[in-house]
Amino acid sequence: MTGTVKIFDTTLRDGTQGEGVSLSVEDKLKIAQRLDALGVTYIEGGWPGSNNKDIEFFIRVKDLKLKHAKVTAFGSTRRKETLADQDPNLNRIIEVGVSVATIFGKSWDFQVHTAIQTTLEENLAMIFDSVRYLKQNGLEVIYDAEHFFDGYKSNPDYALATIRKAEEAGADWIVLCDTNGGTLPHEITEIVKVVRQSVATPVGIHAHNDCELGVANSLAAVMAGATQVQGTINGYGERCGNANLVSIIPNLQLKLNYSVISEEQLASLTGVARYVSEIANMHMPVNQPYVGAAAFAHKGGIHVSAILRNSSTYEHIKPELVGNKQRVLVSELAGQSNLVFKAQEMGLDFDTNNQQTKQLIEQIKEMEHQGYQFEGADATLELLIRNAYGKLEEVFSLESFKIMVAKTMNQPVLTEAIVKVRVHGETCYNAAEGNGPVNALDNALRKCLLQYYPGLQNMHLSDYKVRVLDEKDATAAKVRVLIESSDFQNTWSTVGVSENIIEASWQALVDSIRYALLNQTRAASKQAESKERLGLVNH
Amino acid sequence: MTGTVKIFDTTLRDGTQGEGVSLSVEDKLKIAQRLDALGVTYIEGGWPGSNNKDIEFFIRVKDLKLKHAKVTAFGSTRRKETLADQDPNLNRIIEVGVSVATIFGKSWDFQVHTAIQTTLEENLAMIFDSVRYLKQNGLEVIYDAEHFFDGYKSNPDYALATIRKAEEAGADWIVLCDTNGGTLPHEITEIVKVVRQSVATPVGIHAHNDCELGVANSLAAVMAGATQVQGTINGYGERCGNANLVSIIPNLQLKLNYSVISEEQLASLTGVARYVSEIANMHMPVNQPYVGAAAFAHKGGIHVSAILRNSSTYEHIKPELVGNKQRVLVSELAGQSNLVFKAQEMGLDFDTNNQQTKQLIEQIKEMEHQGYQFEGADATLELLIRNAYGKLEEVFSLESFKIMVAKTMNQPVLTEAIVKVRVHGETCYNAAEGNGPVNALDNALRKCLLQYYPGLQNMHLSDYKVRVLDEKDATAAKVRVLIESSDFQNTWSTVGVSENIIEASWQALVDSIRYALLNQTRAASKQAESKERLGLVNH
Question: Per the database record, which ranges form the Pyruvate carboxyltransferase domain (chains A, B) (predicted)?
Answer without folding.
Answer: 5-267
